[in-house]
Write a structure and sequence with these properties.
The complex is a heterodimer.
Chain A: E1 3-13, E2 16-27, E3 31-35, H1 42-49, E4 57-62, E5 65-66, H2 69-72, E6 75-78, H3 90-100, H4 105-118, H5 134-146, E7 152-155, H6 164-179, E8 184-187, H7 191-197, E9 200-205, E10 208-213, H8 215-219, E11 226-229, E12 246-252, E13 255-260, H9 265-276, E14 281-284, H10 289-302, H11 307-311
Parallel strand pairs in A: 3-8, 3-9, 6-7, 7-8
Antiparallel strand pairs in A: 1-2, 1-4, 4-5, 9-10, 11-13, 11-14, 12-13
Chain B: H1 5-21, H2 24-48, E1 54-58, H3 63-76, E2 80-84, H4 88-97, E3 102-107, E4 110-115, H5 121-142, H6 147-156, H7 172-206, H8 208-212, H9 218-250, H10 261-287, H11 296-316, H12 325-330, H13 337-347, H14 352-380, H15 390-396
Parallel strand pairs in B: 1-2, 1-3
Antiparallel strand pairs in B: 3-4
Helix pairs in contact in B: 1-9, 2-9, 3-5, 5-6, 7-9, 7-10, 7-11, 7-13, 9-10, 10-11, 10-13, 10-14, 11-13, 14-15
The complex binds adenosine-5'-diphosphate and magnesium ion (MG).
Adenosine-5'-diphosphate binds at residues 13, 16, 18, 36, 38-44 of chain A.
């Protein structure tokens, strides 16, 4: 049991800065969703964790120790660019990969059988990988990440290109692995899925973490929003009874969504609403991750450019 | 270096071995090469068998010539079987039937050779010499001299032959083994080098290399690949060389005084290994610069050209003129020597120091090639897309 710590990674490709001090950690038994727009630095971070890429600075630690070559063999990895030997049979290939990661022959065969069954590709063990449908190749790819019984899982967009059934299978496997104590780090653009599956989420933009926490914690980052509904109070854009110290951000019919300008001003709204008539709804809005994500990314885009980055020479 | 290094390399190597042993191309090439070195000489010796072994009959009157003709023809290197016939008529019948190639008779008119249509000049000369010798001996005895003393002085007066250009003496066995060695080493290094290059690009193109390199170091992957393919190629070379040498011995095709078959075979294997390691790493490193099988040919072109030069010199000049300067110099140069020196050595007459210099330079080159190739490979193998410049690969490593 331990924590996978990603600490202050920086990486430049020529003059392009891909990572600027990326830091977060993934705890044992936790599913961590890694989100961010294309080119934000997710794949670069994951490749550095796997040692496929060297960072310019920073460190990756597992249970307090820097991740070295021996430890990397205990990580299960699904690269963004999928790839297996196209002309090798599914079963042979998984056994080979398990053995490369240090399992004995017997262990490798048993593990290959278990994972191909779990992922529903056991019928295809004797087929060449290239003969499989893309969806099944994806399942074999996940099996390849799991076959050596890794202590850590790092999966780059494991859900992209999966049909809904396969998404369920994949989600189930990730939950089961996390339950077994494995820290699971995966990236995805499917934010509903991330919200449903992840214990914690990290949002990366332009090579730095913007926000890290549970979805609940992320909700508290922006201004909280509330909704109030007093049927029959007309549909003027901002009804006269709404106090001045809140900002109305949306309405449909009599249902109004607002952000308090000062803490506690939602209570003023409630009292004013009750004075108008029956209040059928008054609640804090649980904003979906998609919206939170947009906020975070928008805030980021509005932020003035760090004056040092523009002039910094490439490393 | 962790204790996981050798198991990892062994796993990579055994995957390559299994891949090759299941490949039809490898099996077919091996069978064809072995068939060529076995069936070629067998066919040659069957065809050649027709013009040997003249059957010559002697009538009772000519029987005193038999022993002389036998020993003279043995000394002259012609293969001849002699037999006695009952009389002239029986002998002529045998010649007509084709049972005898020639019949020797002695009549009052002198020595006579009876043939079906034309006489073999060597036989005619031999019979003439023996018959003249006999007549001479009889005459010397009649004059009271010592025939043995006269024969001795006659023998001494025979001219000795001085060859001005001894190298031009054509030795078919040395020539054929040189040619076969040159072709075999070239084919074996070229095909195994191509297999390595294709394997490197297959891993790049399919992107499986990223998974492999999350558990293997680049050099382990490269060394495992070279070792696996090298082992299979070595088996192929040993099989072909062994089959060729075995056939030559079985058919008695080579004169052990002229061609040392064992040494030629052993050197062919040694030079194959040196050449294989050099080119395997070079081609593997070069192949890592591209990401598609279609581009492999172009990136290997400089090396294929580099191999063609000593190969062509080796099969077209070296067997005929092993001492020509282009042959001697090229056979010392690394990258060329593995394809050329074994050809010279099969022909024979290579000085020991030349072999030592050639082997020494070739061996000294290998670590440099491995170092460069591994750096290029490590710097280039994870990138995808366009062809990478060597300079950039070295910088990325
Ligand atoms: N091999 C590379 N060479 C040059 N630039 C690269 C390379 N890989 C990634 N980048 C750049 O680094 C940045 C981060 O990319 P990446 O980590 O792939 O982002 P993500 O996975 O979040 O989409 C991008 O700007 C991308 O263009
Ligand atoms: Mg990516």
């Amino acid at each position: 049991m331990g924590t996978l710590e990603i600490d202050g990674l920086t990486k430049s490709y020529g003059s392009r800065k891909a990572l600027r001090g990326t830091s977060f950690d993934v705890r044992s038994g936790e599913i961590f969703g890694f989100v961010g727009s294309n080119g934000a630095g997710k794949s670069t971070t994951m490749r550095i964790v796997l040692g496929v890429l060297m960072p310019d600075a920073g460190e990756v630690r597992w249970a307090g120790r820097p991740v070295d070559h021996a430890l990397r063999r205990r990580i299960g990895y699904m690269p963004e660019e999928r790839g297996l030997y196209p002309k090798m049979k599914v079963g042979e290939q998984l056994v080979y990969l398990a053995r490369l990661h240090g399992l004995s022959k017997a262990e490798s065969v048993a593990s290959m059988e278990r994972w191909t069954s779990t992922l529903g590709v056991d019928e295809r063990r004797d087929d060449e990988v290239q003969k499989l449908s893309l969806g099944n190749q994806q399942r074999v790819q996940l099996a390849a990440a799991l076959v050596h019984d890794p202590e850590i899982l790092v999966l780059d967009e494991p859900f992209s290109g999966l049909d809904p059934v396969a998404v369920d299978v994949m989600s189930g496997v990730l939950r089961e692995r996390a339950h077994a104590g494995v820290p699971v780090l995966f990236s995805s653009h499917q934010l509903e899925l991330v919200e449903a599956l992840c214990d914690r989420v990290g949002i990366i933009a332009a090579g730095a973490m913007d926000a890290v926490g549970t979805v609940e914690e992320l909700r508290s980052i922006g201004n909280p929003q509330w909704v109030v509904d007093v049927p029959g109070t007309g549909d003027a854009s901002t009804p006269a009874w709404v106090p001045d110290d809140v900002r109305v951000v949306g309405r449909s019919g009599s249902r109004i969504t607002f952000e308090p300008r000062t803490p506690g001003s939602e209570q003023t709204v409630l009292r004013a609403a009750l004075a108008q008539g029956d209040v059928t709804e008054f609640a804090r809005v649980r904003r979906p991750l998609t919206e939170l994500y947009r906020d975070v990314v928008r805030v980021d885009a509005d932020r003035p450019t760090d004056p040092t980055t523009a002039t910094e020479a490439s490393a | 270096m962790s204790d996981r290094t050798w198991p990892a390399i062994r796993l990579v190597a055994s995957r390559e071995i299994q891949r090759l042993l299941h490949s039809k191309a490898y099996i077919v090439t091996t069978v064809l090469l072995v068939a060529a070195v076995v069936l070629g000489p067998v066919a040659l010796s069957l065809v050649g068998g027709d013009d040997e072994g003249q059957q010559v009959g002697f009538t009772p009157a000519a029987s005193s010539l038999t022993a002389g003709v036998e020993s003279a023809s043995a000394a002259g290197g012609t293969d001849m079987t002699t037999s006695a016939v009952e009389d002239r008529a029986a002998g002529e019948q045998a010649v007509t039937d084709g049972d005898l190639d020639a019949l020797v008779d002695v009549t009052g008119a002198g020595t006579e050779i009876v043939v079906d249509s034309s006489v073999d000049p060597a036989l005619e000369a031999t019979v003439a010499a023996v018959s003249q010798q006999q007549t001479l001996t009889a005459a010397i005895e009649e004059l009271g001299g010592d025939p043995a003393a006269v024969t001795g002085s006659v023998a001494e007066s025979a001219p000795t032959v001085t060859a001005l250009d001894a190298e031009d003496e054509f030795d078919p066995a040395g020539f054929i083994s040189a040619l076969a060695t040159g072709i075999l080493i070239f084919v074996a290094i070229m095909t195994s080098g191509q297999l390595i290059a294709q394997g490197v690009v297959e891993e790049k193109q399919s992107r499986v290399v990223e998974i492999l390199l999350s558990t293997l170091r680049p050099w382990q992957l490269m060394v495992g690949k070279v070792a696996g393919i090298g082992l299979v190629a070595l088996v192929q070379v040993v099989l072909v060389v062994g089959a060729g040498a075995g056939t030559a011995v079985a058919l008695d095709l080579v004169d052990p005084d002229v061609v040392d078959l064992g040494a030629t075979a052993a050197w062919a294997v040694v030079w194959f290994l040196i050449g294989f390691v050099t080119y395997a790493f070079a081609l593997g490193g070069a192949a890592s610069l591209v990401s598609r099988q279609e581009d492999v040919g172009a990136v290997l072109a400089p090396f294929t050209a580099l191999m063609m030069v000593p190969y062509i010199v080796g099969v077209s000049i070296a067997p005929y003129a092993p001492d020509s300067p282009v042959v001697t110099w090229l056979s010392l140069v690394p990258f060329c020597s593995p394809l050329l020196m074994p050809v010279r050595m099969a022909v024979g007459g290579v000085a020991g120091w030349e072999v030592a210099v050639s082997v020494g330079l070739a061996l000294a080159t290998i670590p440099v090639v491995i170092w460069l190739a591994s750096r290029i490979y490590a710097g280039a193998v994870l990138s995808s897309g366009a062809r990478i410049k060597v300079k950039d690969a070295l910088r990325a490593a």
